[in-house]
Each structure stands twice: as structure tokens, then as C-alpha cells.
Amino acid sequence: MRLIHILAFPVLALIILSARPAGLNQSHNKADTLKHHLYTAGIGGALIGGLYDGIYPYGSLKQHGNFGLGAPALLDGELIIFNGKIYQTQYTGKTFEVNDKQLASFAMVNYFHPSIKITPNKAMDKAGLFHLLDSVLTNVNGMYAIHISGTFSTLKTRAFPPVKEHQHTPLADMLSLQHFFTYNSAQGDLVGYRLPVFMDNTNISGYHFHFLSAQKNEGGHMIDLLTDHIQIEIDVLDSYNVQVPATSDYEHFDFKKNREEDIKSVERGGKAQAQTQGSKVDTMTVYRDKIDQLDKQIVQLLGERMEAARAIGTYKMVHKIGVVQSNRFNDVLQRAIAEGKQLGLSEEFIKKLYEDVHAESVRQQEALKQ
């Protein structure tokens, strides 16, 4: 693919690639034929409403794409399709590659051909990530397949336990049965979509992501996150089709019911208020853990600095040089003030900090004379 635009944003690097091959020798294999096309097996509204029976063999899903997500037969966890392989995360957290003969109750897949790449340069929570994506994906009625790879300070997922055959309890009524998993310093991939409102019922509108760890042994439906270093790739889709189930349960399913609130509850893993509170706790814990780690590093660095100061003190004693070197301290202080300003630190704070550090260095050097 050829480069056609490079756009610079304050918080990200954005590269847009041509969606069309530059040469005439275009491959005519199935991946090219179905380029930018979304295939949906089943009806999203039916899954939300309680139709969990397995219908679509995983092997057949692979004929329609190498990227996507879905639900296993009888709701036994979550599915993720990545690099042409299909993985299942069960409610126990166990994650593994499935065989082609097993069945899905619902799935969305496409052949992934990214035309947009984004490299954010700051950490983001889920709301910040979605805001960033919205600022780039300005077509509110567009269909987008989204791949996010890298490291996450924290990532919370969930999976549902299996149901009995022909059990049709609506998914929103089973939220208390969810099993949640929190992964800290996680590395892996998020596979997902942002779909427009007009696709509600057949699919699930808005953002929807499933996670797969780099080791392929952890995963689930993404509930919340805090990014660390990530890269985002986006495939702009331009068509879709739906394969409807050919079952008696589907033929008699009531699609007239408004399931908008049920869909929202299922997507976020619970009622809005409770989930928001949980997200705040998770985010605060992550940042406090990070502060604890940084504080430990600060103390260790101060210890190393004093060790260097004592070595200099010994040199001064041998060469009969005075302990206090005002010109040297002023040079160090001014350099620190300039660097601090670039990081948003006030001159007053830097001056007070370095005066305390300098005083301790002098004390340590004077102690060598005793």
C-alpha cells in the first residue's frame, strides 16, 4: 500500500495509507475479494435476547475473515479471531485455540487491511481512548475494524459461564454470573469494531473489543483499561452482510422489544453507575501502584547520588578543596530549573528540592572529616 497522507496531532502520530494497491498485479484471492467487508454470522440482538445455541462452525468463519470477535456455543466465554486463528476465553479465564469443528452462536469477522495507523504518545483510560478514536473516525455512520496492540497498565475483561442447551435467559439478566479478570502490565492485542447505530440489532453499535494476551493464554471481553504504549490500526469497512440463523428459535424470536439498555449494560459489564465506580477504583489503584514504584526509584537514585557525593568529598579532602562549591551548585540548579519547566515543574519547587539535596550532600561530605 502506498502512503498518501501523514497528519500530526498533539497527542498522536497518524498515518493514513491508501486502501488500494498501487500496482496492477493485484492478488485475486478471497482476502482481496472480501477486502473491507464485514461478515456477521447470526444476529446481535438475538444473542443479547438469549439465543445461544451454536450454529456456525469456526472453520466456516475463517472463510470470511482473519480478524473478529464473537460468542461460543452456549455462551461459554468469549471468542477472538486474530491472525486467522480463533481463541476462546472461558469463564474460568482459561484461553486456548479452538478447532474448526466447534460452533459459534454469533460472530463478526473480516479480512483485516488497515488503512489508518495511530501511535498515541500518552496513556489513556477507556474514555480517553474512545475520544481519540472518535476524533479520527469522523464518519459517525462509518464501519471500522480496529486493532490495538501493545502494553496496558491495566486491562479488565469478563467472560460468561456456559448455559444449558435451549436456555434463553436474556444476557442482561445474567450479568451477576459474569467472571471478571484484571491484568496488570498486560501485553497483547485488542480486536474490535466501531459500528454505526443503523446496525443495531443485526450487530452491536458503538465500540466493542475483545482482548488476547501476547502469550495467547488470557483474554475476554474488554470492560475497562488504562493504556501504556500502544499502536492502533484501523480498517475502514465499506460493506457487510448477515447470515441469519435457520432455526425454529430464531423464527419465533421477538425483535420488536427495545434492547438498547440491555446492550449497553452487557457491553460495559453492568449498570452504568456501578461500572463507573469500579473503573475509578481500578484506575486509582493503577496510578497509586505506579507512584509507589516511582517513589522507590526516587529514593534509590538519591542514595546513588549521595554515594557519588561522598566519593567527590573524599577527592576534595585529598586535594584540600573546600566542600562547598557555590558556582557548581548554581550551574546544577539552573539546569534543573530549565529541565523542570519543560516538565511542568515550578521553579520554586525545583529550587527547594535541590537546596535540600545539596544540603544533604554537604552534610555527607563534612561527615567524612570526622
Automatic annotation (TrEMBL):
One Gene Ontology MF term: acetolactate decarboxylase activity
InterPro entries: Acetolactate_a_deCO2ase, Chorismate_II_sf, CM_dom_sf, CM_II_prokaryot
SUPFAM superfamilies, per the entry: AF0104/ALDC/Ptd012-like, Chorismate mutase II
SMART domains found in the cross-reference section: CM_2 (SM00830)
Coiled-coil region(s): 284-311
CDD domains: acetolactate_decarboxylase
Gene Ontology biological-process annotations: acetoin biosynthetic process; chorismate metabolic process
Catalysed reactions, semicolon-separated: (2S)-2-acetolactate + H(+) = (R)-acetoin + CO2
Residues in Chorismate mutase domain copies: 278-369
Gene3D superfamilies in the record: Chorismate mutase, Hypothetical protein, similar to alpha- acetolactate decarboxylase, domain 2
Family: Belongs to the alpha-acetolactate decarboxylase family.
The protein's name in its UniProt record: Alpha-acetolactate decarboxylase
